[in-house]
Amino acid sequence: MTEDIDYEIDPEDLPDRVERKPLGPPSVVVDDLHITYRVFGARRGGTTKERSSLWDKAISLGRPDTGPITEVPAVRGVSFVAHHGESIGILGTNGSGKSTLLRAVAGLLPPTSGRVFTSAEPELLGVNAALLPRLTGERNITIGGLALGLSNKEVRRNIPGVSEFAELGDFLYLPMSSYSSGMASRLRFAISTIRTPEILMIDEALATGDASFRKKSTARIEEIRAQAGTVFFVSHSLASVRAMCTRALWIDKGVLVADGDVDVVADAYHEYVEGRSDASSGAKLN
Ligand SMILES: Nc1ncnc2c1ncn2[C@@H]1O[C@H](COP(=O)(O)OP(=O)(O)OP(=O)(O)O)[C@@H](O)[C@H]1O
Ligand SMILES: [Mg+2]
User: Fold this and answer.
1) Which residue, by CA, sits nearest to atom 27 of ligand 1?
2) In the chain, where are the structural domains located?
3) What digits encode the pLDDT tens for the residues 102-142?
4) Is the Cβ–Cβ distance between 7 and 286 less than 8 Å?
5) Structurally, what CATH architecture does the domain formed by 2-32+80-125+193-277 represent?
6) How far apart are CA 64 and CA 85, in angstroms?
7) Are 101 and 259 in contact (CB under 8 A)?
8) Which atom of ligand 1 is nearest to 251's Cα?
9) Three-state SS string across 226-279, please?
């Protein structure tokens, strides 16, 4: 599974390792969280079942028969406590449930069972900043800023800084449809971090940035962490997770299989992925 393996990052481009600091009070508590997706109209695989409950019949009323429902258990019984001042890497192979977990903690997906408590509204990078391709960068910064709760005045004050951070230049006044994917993700990052959120979640958002932007965004993340925020960072790059995080969670098939010091968990995950990929690929992890 080569998509699980990052071999592009030059070790010299990596930031210095984040500094460990004493932990603050809890910011996120996840208690026996289960998230199960229900996919309608699937014909095979998974735990497919016919619509039999009253609820299933009620929600299918008036709709054409789309066939049976498949349940996909994406997160299964995950529990952990995160603290202020921690940056936590989330590791796991494709489809293991990392994005689902982040979306649930961010409040974008209701738990099927279990509970999530947060000390503030988490900000999931790249989702809260849903950018509109037909509008200019400037308009998108305005809308994004207002969506984050900034006043008109604050938004106007922030436009030059965001544009500079995202290195837009004159593209600030062009529709985002003319941006490269790297530029768009830089802008998304810059908008999402206009405010220093208490809980920041990043789902591979830095993957499209070039090395110099990666350095800059890492510095910004460190700034947020230094202000006692909590950062969650999902990445397939073990080297970035080691550099940017102090702790890591490893999720496999929706189950939390390891939670602890970033190096210990990253070593165990590395060994697991290497073992899996030996047969199919010779690529190496960073
Ligand atoms: N909207 C959805 N509807 C149904 N199933 C979904 C949905 N989104 C994700 N899944 C399934 O849930 C499981 C977990 O997916 P998720 O996207 O959370 O994994 P991931 O660890 O983020 O993977 P990747 O590394 O590829 O980003 C997978 O089996 C996936 O197929
Ligand atoms: Mg994902």
Assistant:
1) 94
2) 2-32+80-125+193-277
3) 999 999 999 999 999 999 989 887 555 578 999 999 999 99
4) yes
5) 3-Layer(aba) Sandwich (3.40)
6) 51
7) no
8) 21
9) HCCCEEEEECCCHHHHHHHCCEEEEEECCEEEEEEEHHHHHHHHHHHHHHHHCC
Spacing, Cα 15 to ligand 2 middle (Å): 23
> For 185-212, what is each residue's pLDDT tens digit?
889 888 888 888 889 888 876 556 677 8
Structure tokens at 235: 């990445």
Cα–Cα distance measured from residue 45 to residue 42, given in angstroms and rounded to the nearest whole number: 8
What is the rounded radius of gyration, in angstroms, for the C-alpha atoms of the chain? 20
As to burial, measured by CB atoms within 10 angstroms (0-12 exposed, 13-18 middle, 19+ buried), residue 101 is buried
Q: How confident is the model at residue 284 (pLDDT cuts 50, 70, 90)?
A: very low
CA distance linking residue 158 with residue 245, whole number of Å: 28
Which of 40, 47, 100 most suits a substitution to test ligand 1, by most atoms within 8 Å of the C-beta?
100
Number of the ligand 1 atom closest to the C-alpha atom of 100: 18
Q: Cα angle at 197 between 112 and 83, to 5 degrees? A: 65
- In this structure, the strands spanning 26-40 and 113-118 are antiparallel
